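Throughout our pipeline, every protein is held as a single compact record rather than as scattered files. The remainder of this section carries one protein's record, kept here as part of the documentation.

===
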Amino acid sequence: MAKNYWLMKSEADVYSIDDLERDGRTMWDGVRNYQARNNMRKMREGDLVLYYHSRQTPSAVTGIAKVVRESYPDPTQFDRGNKYFDEKSDPDDPRWWLVDVEFVEKLDRQVGLPDIKANPDLSEMVLVRNSRLSVQPVEKAEYDAVLAMARG
């Protein structure tokens, strides 16, 4: 099966690339957007992820992660004490799903959104057209272009 590429966003003060490097692996919980959820349901073990810090100046790709467990129900949707609890989600038909990701690499040079937008090869990238979507597909050529920018 062909490898796919993705971009996943996290705020640096919530869960940064440094946190992922420290932990090694994490479940990508708390996604409450249907389009982002549907993208995670398409992820396969071994897919590569551009790790993106939003809400920093500038927002930027900061590292690489890898999908190490395919989608399964997000347990936080059933936990009444969790901020991601969803009273309408049914354990027999879960509404929210997640994947597990593993740290691969922290980029020496972050690739900021202004640089991505300025690169004509990335003009069709979902990030350029819909910068708010937290989990989005990335074409292989886009993934390669971002890494080339990071590596100078």
